[in-house]
Amino acid sequence: MARVVNDLTDAQWDALKAAWGGCAYCTAPAAALQKDCVQAISRGGRYTLGNVVPACGSCNASKCNAEVTGWLRRKKLDERTFLVRHYEISAELTTRFPAEPSTVD
Ligand SMILES: [Zn+2]
User: Fold this and answer.
1) Domain tally for the chain?
2) Distance 101 CA to ligand 1 centre (A)
3) Where are the alpha helices (DSSP H) in 30-100?
4) CATH number at residue 88
């Protein structure tokens, strides 16, 4: 049985924030970006490099457990641009940070 992987490291988080350059959803250059799971934890998402994006407090609170594409549409945010950037940034960062089998204590 696979263990739950909640393994986003500080270095990965810093890289995510640098790659997005602000809130992943509304692009606000918020000072205090929060870790948001694109696929919510309640929907099977995890705190991993490919599933976490930086979000401003407003987007994080609004999105909550919503399904991301439907939420983006309701907020009139650019769903397509988000999905393309999310794909590109995830691909780039997972190359830079290959999955490690070890766990952080
Ligand atoms: Zn935002």
Assistant:
1) 1
2) 33
3) 57-63, 68-74, 79-96
4) 1.10.30
